[in-house]
Amino acid sequence: AAEIFATGELDGVRVLVTGGPTWEAIDPVRGLTNRSSGKMGYAVAAAAAEAGARAVLVSGPTTLPDPDRVRTVRVVSAREMHDAVMAEIDAADIFVGVAAVADYRPVESAPRKIKKEAERLTLDLVRNPDILADVAKRRPDIYAVGFAAETEDLEARARAKLEAKGLDLVAANLVGRPGSGFEADTNTLLLVDRRGTTELAQAHKTALARILIHEIAQRYHAQGR
Ligand code: CTP
Ligand code: CA
User: Could you tell me which residues belong to the region Phosphopantothenate--cysteine ligase (predicted)?
Assistant: First the structure.
C-alpha cells in the first residue's frame, strides 16, 4: 500500500521530525510527562520517507516500533531531545516539531526514591529549552513546521505561535474532544501559514500525515527549493 503514496514529492529532501512525549525525572522511579502516544509524529516521519525524503525521527519514550525507512533516535528528556535535534539540524531542509515537549522540568532530580514522609511536597520547576524556536533561530533558512495543541481559540493561538517562533507553518489541533489529538487514532488539523488557513478533515493519523506531508512539500517547493 505504501507504494501508492510513494509520490517522490520529497525526493532527496532531508526531513527531521520530533515525536512522542518527553519525560522529566523527579527521582529514579517518577517523572513529569505529557500525554502523547507518538502516533502522529511517527506517521509524519513515515509519510516523509514514503514521499522520498531522507527522514530522521527524534523520539521521546513511546511503545511504538521505529517507522520503516526512518532513522530513529531515542531520547527521554526535553534537554536530550534538544541536543539530539541540534546535532541533526544542520543536515535538514525541513523540520517538523510534533513532539509534546514538557515545558518544565524539576530543578533537580533526586538521586534516590523520594519516600512518603511529608504531608505536603512542593516541586520546583524550571523552563525547558524551546526546541522548535531554537531550530528556527539557528536555521532561519529551514522550512520549519510546528504543531499546536489547544483546547480553545485554535486559529488565533496557532497564528500567534507562527509569528512568535518565526515558523513557516503551524498544524493546529483541538485537544480534549473525541476523535482528536492524544491517544486517538484520528485527528483533525488546521494548517496556518502567512498565506491563509487550510482545514484538513478528520482522518486516520496515517492518512492525515500523508496529506500534511503533501501540503508541506508543495509549500516548500513553492519557495523555489
Ligand atoms: N515545542 C518544542 N520545545 C518545547 C515546547 C514546544 O519544540 N520546549 C514545540 C512542539 O513540538 C510544537 C510547538 O513547539 O511543535 C508548540 O508546542 P505547544 O506546547 O503547543 O506550544 P508552546 O510554545 O510550548 O506554548 P504553550 O504550551 O504555552 O501553549
Ligand atoms: Ca507547551
Answer: 15-225
Q: How far is CA 158 from CA 15, 128, 134, 148, 194, in A?
A: 22, 20, 18, 6, 11
Asked whether the beta carbons of 58 and 84 are under 8 A apart, the reply is: yes
CB 17 within 8 A of CB 32: no
Q: Which ligand is nearest to the CA of 59?
A: 1
**Ligand 1 centroid vs 102 CA: distance in angstroms?**
8
Q: Is the CB of 135 under 6 A from ligand 1?
A: no
Q: In terms of pTM, does the model score above 0.80?
A: yes
Q: Is-catalytic flag, 187?
A: no
Ligand 1 neighbour 128 (Cβ under 6 A): yes
Reported in sequence order, the residue ranges of 87-142 that DSSP labels E, i.e. its strands, are: 94-97, 104-106, 125-127
| 103 annotated as belonging to a binding site for a ligand | yes
Give tens-digit pLDDT for 72-117: 999 999 999 999 999 999 999 999 999 999 999 999 999 999 999 9
Kindly give the number of the ligand 1 atom that is closest to the alpha carbon of 146: 15
Q: Are 129 and 105 in contact (CB under 8 A)?
A: no
Q: Is the dihedral of CA 200, 204, 205, 209 positive or negative?
A: negative
